[in-house]
Every structure is written in C-alpha cells, then in structure tokens.
Amino acid sequence: MTPEELDRRAGELHHEWESPGLWGRIERARRGSRRWWWWAGAGVAAAVALGLFLAPGPRRAPVSAKAPLLTEQALAEVEEAEAAYRKSIDKLARVAAPKLAGPGTPLLRAYAEKLAVLDGAIGTLQAEVARNGFNTHLHVQMAALYRDKQQTLEQVLHAQ
Amino acid sequence: MSGEVLALPIDIFASKGAPWAAFEEVYRLHGARLKSMAYNLLGNEQDAEDAVQEAFLKACRGTESFRGGAAAHTWVYRILVNLCLDEGRRRGRRPVMAVDVDAASREAGADLRVALRQAMGQLPVRQRAVFLMAAVEGLPHGEIATILEISETNSRTLLLEARRQLQELLTK
C-alpha cells in the first residue's frame, strides 16, 4: 500500500451515524448523577447532625474535650461570620421562594425536598451549637451545611 | 469534516456559571467526530455512544481540574481518548478487532479498511491515537498535541512512525 493510498483509506475510516437521542441521554445521566450527589450529601449532613443530637451526654463530653476549642474572641468572630452568612442565604431564599412555592417540575421539587432536609439538619446542629458553642467541629459542619444550602438555592435560581 | 470548527475555542470559564452550555456546544460541533473516534477505538456504535456519554459526564464532573487556556473540546477529546484506550486495555484485547466486520464488508473496498483497522490495533497506544486523530479524523497537529499533552513535533513523529508501521503490516 502506498502512503497516498494509506492516507485515503484512513480517511474512509471516519464513520458517521445518526444518534438523535444521545445528547438527551447524556443530559439525563448528568441530572441523575447530580441528584445522586445531592441526596448523598444531604443524607451525610443529616446523619452527622442526627448523630450529634442523639449522642448521649456522658459520651459527648470527652469528644468535646478533645475537640479543638475556640477562644472567646474567635467564637465571637465565627458567630458574626455565621450570622452574616445566614443573612445572605436568607436573602437568596427570599429570591428563590416564588420558584419553590409551587415547584412545577420534578427538578424543582427535588430542590425543595433537599432544602427541607438541609433546614432540618441546620436546625438540629444549631441546637447542638447552642449547647457547645466552643466546639470548632460543629462550626465547620455548620459552614458546610450553609454552603450546601447556598449552592442549592443558586441552583434553584438557575433551574428552568 | 472541515478543520474549521476546530479553530473555535470554547473556554468553559468564559461561560462561568453555565459550563454545561459550553459542553453542549462542543457536542454540537464535535459530536460526530467524537463518535467516530470512539467507534474506531471500540469497534461498535453502541460502545462508542456510551464512551462519548461518559466522556461528557467526566468532563462536567472534572471542570475543577480543567486547565484554562485549553479549549473545552480538547478537554473532552482527551477524556474520550483515555476512556477508549482504558476500555481497550480492560477488555484485554486490541479494541479495533471488535469492529463489526460483517457490516463493514457490505461496502465496496471494505477489505482494505478492515485490514487497516486491524493493523491500527497493533500499533502502540500513542501512535494509534495520533494516527486516528490525524489521518482518520483530520485533526491538526496543534490540536492533537494539546489533547495528548505532547509537543507538535512529537505528534508529527508519532504519525510518521505509525504510517511506516502500518505500511509494513499491510504489505506483509
């Protein structure tokens, strides 16, 4: 086979066929995989919060003792930052509220359910923080939950 | 296929907040070529479509590791090539051997194409990838170099070596 013939034959290996449903399939798979991550994340967050809430007092005390403790000054700053974060998330929630009031699509319904789970986890964790405000881990978990809620609200705003 | 579309850079960071729209554009412009590449590496249309789907999902999930400066389509091409080559290794056989020979042989001049596919399967991985992208799909060396993270000179050298080996294999 000459080099020219080789090149010509190679070009003929290009193969095209119609796949009218392929992009739709890719989009559905993407949505499905994202939803799986949301629920997994929300489930872990809820489990962590529930675990902290249900853990018996005597067992919790040593854990708290070992956990890094915030100083008074640092705690004040953390609480200030959390309050500001909460405020901005509340603003975002107000903007997203009309879309969530009567979610018309399965996607928006899934967001609404996820937000309800997150709110439940945040409430549980807030109760724990009220009892043990100096525990750094609790504030880290709280920040993660707020971040998740913020991202979910942003996704609601971008959802069709 | 013209090489014109390849010159269109789609930087996913330029469409911040909606990178998926950039991927949709990549699919619109490059979908046929991506499918063809996967077909030639995996051997059938169904596997090729599955690989293209997986490449887009991986590209979407991996936007954080995407390097700015490259275009979104080269990112998808790179993932697809790696996926197909991994799949070939996982199967433990030369991927091109799985081409639907019955369907191919119904066309005129199919013998040489089948022989060429089989010969391609015997090339080292990088030579095979470069030959496929350059000679079959018509990608310029600049694009191939970006996709495979090699230099343009290296891409040209690999193509020359692939051609030489294929000629040897096909004249045996």
What keyword list fits this structure?
heterodimer, A: 160 residues, mainly alpha, 2 domains, B: 172 residues, 8 helices, globular, disordered N terminus
Task: Report on the architecture of this protein.
The complex is a heterodimer of chains A (160) and B (172). With 160 residues, chain A is an all-alpha fold. Chain A has two domains: 21-54; 72-158, no CATH class. Chain A has six helices and no strands. Chain A has helices at 3-12, 22-54, 57-66, 72-101, 106-131, 136-158. Chain A starts with a helix and ends with a helix. Mean pLDDT of chain A is 78; it is low at 58-65. Chain B is an all-alpha fold and 172 residues long. Helices cover 68% and strands 0% of the residues of chain B. Chain B contains eight helices and no strands. Chain B has helices at residues 19-42, 45-61, 72-91, 101-105, 110-120, 125-136, 141-148, 152-171. In chain B, helix 5 (110-120) packs across helix 8 (152-171). The chains are: A mainly alpha (160), B mainly alpha (172). The interface between A and B is medium-sized, with 22 and 36 residues.
